[in-house]
Amino acid sequence: MLPEDWRSATLIGRIETAAGPSPVLVRGGVVHDMATVAPTVSGLLDRRDLDNVVGSPLGTLEELDISASIDGAPGLLPPLDLQCIKAAGVTFAVSAIERVIEERARGDASAASAVRGKLEARVGGSIRAVIPGSPEAAELKAALIDEALWSQYLEVAIGPDAEIFTKAPVLASVGWGADIGVRSDSTWNNPEPEIVLVVNSAGRAVGATLGNDVNLRDFEGRSALLLGKAKDNNASCAIGPFIRLFDDKFTMDDVRGAKVDLLIEGEDGYRLEGTSSMREISRDPDALIAQALSEHQYPDGFALFLGTLFAPVQDRDEPGRGFTHKPGDVVRISTQRLGTLVNRVTTSKAAAPWTLGIGALMTNLAGRGLLAAADQQPKEGS
């Protein structure tokens, strides 16, 4: 699960202890329980002295078994707690083609192939070249309107305003090794392998992790107004395994240049591989953060999915039906500097229910005597 250079990386995560969830910091390969320093990851990422603080050493990553079983046993928790989980959609202009296909096919996978051929013939090359919000983008929009090919998805792909939406409630994500949920009534869906930026309460990007922004192509294809139902379901947001903090060895430029690999292996022997290159993103990560912050505040920070170039079209069963998940699929999302996120697909109904909300977390932390000390810690921006 770890980055290839994990010994020199500074990582933030969460683990389940006998007393309850605790933030951990991994520095030099040593795992430190940070609960007495900051009881939440949100609070830890706000610390002005984060480069110097240490918690209670638990041992090295080689000594400890903090990974989760892919069979659903408790283990490593998602590395976020109080942060709002946001997502940017259609950030790769060329991926907008697949969104338009969903819309034109009305969520019917069997109709997608014909729509794809027509649309790619008209915009496949030109859409890659335009800068969102530019005069050239406006000219392309006018041309597509004239040909009755314009779509709301192309608007957010090449227009001035990015699509920013809320992916999941606070504390509702799942971590490495947990089951990830797809609605039981969806028949056309896919994973979305993405890099996730983590921003603290001061609005500063402090690190990055991996995420799976599960997408229901049939629901959103029928109507964009079904985005909430397509995106936010039980166990439908996987994040992890760790947040890698930005430092002199890992910067936003590493995010910009990353290649995100995807591997899906089904119990039926099906195998699908794909790669999403962040160099092809149409909107810079800093610009997406700025749009998320333009008229909103996040006092506990937020996480932002950056979008994906990957949309699987390889047939799984019937010719022309494309790809869709089956229960038991194992999804691996990886990149060299962030590690590997692994989850097994089930339905949102069958996945473990979400039970630990904000109230329960605060009750647990108060019972451990951790909240009073947290108010006295030096915070960025204060």
TrEMBL record:
Asked whether the UniProt record includes Protein transport among its keywords, one would answer no
Q: What is stated as this protein's family in its record?
A: Belongs to the FAH family.
Q: Any idea which UniProt keywords this protein has?
A: Hydrolase, Metal-binding
Sample GO molecular function, one term: hydrolase activity
Q: Where are the transmembrane segments?
A: none
BP GO annotations:
small molecule metabolic process
Q: What is this protein called?
A: Fumarylacetoacetate hydrolase
Say which species the protein is native to: Sphingomonas cavernae
Q: What Gene3D superfamilies does the record tag this protein with?
A: Fumarylacetoacetase-like, C-terminal domain
- Indicate the secretion signal residues: none
Report domain Fumarylacetoacetase-like C-terminal positions.
163-345
Q: Name one Pfam family in it.
A: FAA_hydrolase
The reply on keyword ATP-binding is: no
| InterPro entries linked | FAH, Fumarylacetoacetase-like_C, Fumarylacetoacetase_C_sf
